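Possible regression after last week's pipeline update?

I re-ran a chain I had predicted before the update to compare outputs. Posting the input and the new output here so someone can diff against the archived version. Not blocking, just want to make sure nothing changed silently.
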Amino acid sequence: MGSTLEFVRILLPIVIVGGIAVFVVLRMKHKYKKGTLGKKKSKSAQNLLDSLIPFGMMIGFAIAVLLNIFSLIPLLSAIAWGPGIGLLVGYFAYEIYSKKEEIYP
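New output (post-update):
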């Protein structure tokens, strides 16, 4: 009984974060095939748009490590959850920012 619980505790973050990664990759692939990837007029806005997903993963990792320092969350679990949740948040930020119109004075 104890080994089954340990097995689930180890694999659960990997399965959930893997599901998040597959979701994001398939959604981006679908948008690419449809030709609806986010496009911005200015170079700096396009660079920001292209950087939102990796930036979300880095922020998620940093938050996970900080939470690990100040709480009882195991480091390996935090390293699995942080970038995965950051990937999802970065994807949603990408979706929101790609739909926002640029306003020029």
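Follow-up from reviewer: compared with the archived run. Residues 66 and 78 are 9 Å apart (CA to CA). Marking as no regression found.
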